[in-house]
Amino acid sequence: MSQRIKTTFLVLAGIAALLAIATWATFQLPVFGAGPGAALMERMRASKQFHGGRFENTPPYVSDLSWSGELKSWLGDEVREPTFEVPVERLARNALARPVAPGLRARWLGHASVLVEVDGVRILTDPVLSQRVSPFQFVGPARLHAAPIGLEDLKNIDAVVISHDHFDHLDMATVQALGRGGTHFYVGLGIGAHIESWGVPAAQVHDMDWWESAQVGNVTFHCAPARHYSGRKSMDNSTLWSSWMIKGPNHSVYFSGDTGYAGHFKQVRERLGAPELAMIKVGAYGDTWETIHMTPESAVQAHRDLGAGTLLPVHWGTFNLAYHAWAEPMVRSVAAAKAQGVQIVTPRPGENVEVGVPFVNRAWYVKG
């Protein structure tokens, strides 16, 4: 081997070593969360969904991604961002200072974040108020509309439910702001380690397995199945994904989280009853993703499986995370709901939906 080849080899090896060190150092940043301690790990291993050192779907999810197909889809000509300013209904700065009124109401804050009030308890689902869903706020998918409420006004939230630990569902800055206000977090097994590593006291963090329940005031939080995957650093399925049924003495609401269509919707109804309001994921889908990211038509069928009263579509319109047109998830959801006789609401971000009070749907997502 000539000296020149040896020198080139050493330079390339040095570059590779530096990249490896940089990658390792990056993954040590707080935003990537933390692994479970011994006690939590023991609970994870005891879960029926834990196999071979990771959580698995039943049956297991087998990726059929084709990189050439994904590239072709990525290069498509769909209009994936709104061509007009999305109408956002801002919450008043003191909106959360008032006591929670009786009843059931929800405000979609964008993507999978919904502010829900159930029988006197104020809840947030997958709260993400940062500008980007990324480990870094200088790069990554950015918001396509303003958040209806700022972090500084996010107060008096009794509880948060987290469906899984991906960056568009678990946001460190939002979690920290809520944690400082005393909010309790109800999460799938393993996710609590992330939240505690961000400074939230352990007493406010509750890791749960499917079909376990917890009480907040007179409202019960049921952790329920979903069909997805997890991981902050890779698709390692290191934490448990879930859906949530929230039931008070008078009202009930279901939150699907990210999921493919499967039999768990019927299981939820059989074990926990039919919810009045179902907040179901309708956006971010693709031809090869359906087993873990269902289509709008499947979301409407899931709503029917649940026997739910009103469908509130979520997980669309806020971040550009898929290959479909921006408004397509809502357009297809409304059409499928009409075809199947499902009651659907189409609120603007921040607009209030109150169960039992008539809601006037407007196609605000279609420019015309």
TrEMBL record:
**Residue ranges of domain Metallo-beta-lactamase in the record:** 122-316
Q: Which Pfam families match?
A: Lactamase_B_2
Cross-referenced InterPro entries, in alphabetical order?
Metallo-B-lactamas (IPR001279), NAPE-PLD (IPR024884), RibonucZ/Hydroxyglut_hydro (IPR036866)
In the UniProt record, which is one GO cellular component term? Answer: cytoplasm
One MF annotation (Gene Ontology) recorded for this entry = zinc ion binding
Annotated protein name in UniProt? Metallo-beta-lactamase domain-containing protein
